[in-house]
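Lecture notes, continued. The same structure-token format from the folding unit now serves as the input rather than the output. Read the line below as a description of shape only.
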């Protein structure tokens, strides 16, 4: 479980750096979205180990749901004013984000498969 906390913290720092500092649009707009899937996965696995495929699927469903909410402008419909919540929900739909989220599964599966503690 400590391994998941460590990876979560490293990914969180990386995501904050990507969001805070100027990076190429590919890094900010795509790679950041790829990394959010392992970030969420490690967050869930830190609290209680679950089946790898189950957690990965739920994280992907969650990410897709947030993206679809962006398509329907959920933050605007709910008149959300809190800046932090607006950042979490997002403001615009991008179909490339769906691809990025899907690709975010790959590092999870590879790491879990090839690390000693990764087998479920």
């Amino acid at each position: 479980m400590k391994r998941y906390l460590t990876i979560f913290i490293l990914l969180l720092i990386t995501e904050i750096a990507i969001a805070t500092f100027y990076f190429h649009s590919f890094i900010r707009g795509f790679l950041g979205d790829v990394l959010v899937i392992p970030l969420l996965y490690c967050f869930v696995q830190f609290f209680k180990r679950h089946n790898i495929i189950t957690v990965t699927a739920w994280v992907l469903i969650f990410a897709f749901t947030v993206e679809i909410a962006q398509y329907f402008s959920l933050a605007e419909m709910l008149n959300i004013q809190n800046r932090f919540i607006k950042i979490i929900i997002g403001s615009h739909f991008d179909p490339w984000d769906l691809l990025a989220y899907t690709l975010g599964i790959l590092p999870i599966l590879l790491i879990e498969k090839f690390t000693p503690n990764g087998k479920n």
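Point for the exam: The mean pLDDT is 90.
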